[in-house]
Specification:
By secondary structure, the protein is an alpha/beta fold. The protein is built from 3 helices and 8 strands; from the N terminus they run αβαββββαβββ. A hairpin with a 3-residue loop joins strand 2 and strand 3.
Length: about 140
């Protein structure tokens, strides 16, 4: 069963992971296939291209994420990825239900202007999502 079918069955919508301000990002990973599985199954990225050394994934609105196999001397776990979501609480709950460990859980930040959730991918890269407050 595909992620989209699972989401439909569970009445979940991937739109909570829509990115508004980032168009492309590349990170070094230990295992490309394992990383592709994380980003596609946990975050709903669509797989555009995948080999054992390189993968390209995309969100519904076109943001691209490249995953490059770590080679000797390349840092791993040093990347970061951030994006805007429509509903921080709902998106965070979806991640929790998918087994993602949450580091910061919809914390109100910057004098109440936004909510922030932080978590790590399987290689320790920090990912954050922000919902702008509706003040």
């Amino acid at each position: 069963m595909s992620l989209a079918q699972i989401c439909l069955k569970m009445n979940l919508k991937i739109k909570y992971f829509m990115v508004n301000h980032l168009t492309h990002y590349m990170i070094n990973v230990k295992n490309v296939h394992r990383s592709v599985k994380f980003y596609s199954e946990k975050l709903g990225f669509k797989i555009e291209y995948e080999t054992s050394e390189w993968a390209e994934l995309k969100t519904e609105n076109g943001m691209e994420l490249a995953l490059k196999k770590q080679f000797k001397g390349d840092p791993v776990g040093s990347g970061g990825l951030g994006f805007v979501v429509n509903d921080c609480r709902k998106a965070t709950d979806i991640l929790k239900n998918r087994g993602v460990k949450i580091l910061k859980d919809c914390e109100l930040r910057e004098k109440g202007s936004k909510y922030l959730t932080q978590f790590n991918d399987q290689d320790g890269d920090v990912i954050w999502m922000v919902e702008k407050s509706k003040k």
